[in-house]
Amino acid sequence: MPTDLSASLAALPGFPQLHGPRVRLRGPRPQDADAVFALFSDPEVMRYWSRAPMTQRDEACALISEMEEAFAQRDKINWVSVDRRDMVIGTCTLFRFDARHRHAEIGYSLRSDQWGKGLAREAVGAALDWAFRSLHLHRIEADIDPLNDNSRRILQRLGFVSEGVLRERFFVGDEAKDSEMFGLLADDWQRRERS
Hints:
- This protein has a domain at 5-137: 3-Layer(aba) Sandwich (Aminopeptidase), CATH 3.40.630.30.
- The protein is built from 7 helices and 8 strands, in the order αββαααβββαβαββα.
- The chain has helices at residues 5-10, 33-40, 43-46, 57-72, 119-134, 149-157, 186-194; strands spanning 18-19, 24-26, 76-82, 88-98, 103-110, 139-144, 161-172, 175-185.
- It has an 8-stranded mixed beta sheet, with helices on both faces.
- Helix 2 (33-40) crosses helix 4.
- The chain is globular and about 40 Å long.
- InterPro entries: Acyl_CoA_acyltransferase (IPR016181), GNAT_dom (IPR000182), Ribosomal_N-acetyltransferase (IPR051908).
C-alpha cells in the first residue's frame, strides 16, 4: 500500500511517542544534555561509531539542537530512548528517507551499563514497527562496523539480513573502517510479527 512518505512525515505533529515494555522513545529535550553527553562520551559506546567520543558537554547540547532541527525539517527522526524513570539510556534514529523507493536507514545507541538486557532490541523494534506501519516503508537498512558483534546480533534477532561489506567506507580519525550493510523488508517484519 504505497503512500506519500514526504506527506506522512510532514503531517507528524511532533516526535512520535513509542512505548515498549521497558523503554520509551521520545523527542530530545535540552535537559537531556548531561545524559546525552554521558552516552556519547563513553569510549565503549563510541567504539564502532564513525566519530570520536564527545569531550565537551556543549557537543551534547549541539547534538540535541541538531536532533530537533532535523525533525523540524523531517530529515531525521532522532529519538532518545528512556527508561521508566524518563532517564535517557540511548538513542534510535530513522534517517536518509527515500520517498520514491520507500526506504530509510536506522541507527541506535545504548549506554554501556545497560548492555545485555535486550533494551536496544526493544527500542529498535518499536521504531521499526512504527516505521513499517505508520510510514509504510518497504525497506529499512542499517550499517555497522563488521567487528561489532553485539550490534550484529541485535539486527539479526530483529530479522535483518547481512547484505555485504563495503570496504573502508568511513574514517574514524585517520583510520579507514569497513561497513557491513543489513536490510529488512516490510514483508520480513510482518512475517516475523505473525510468527
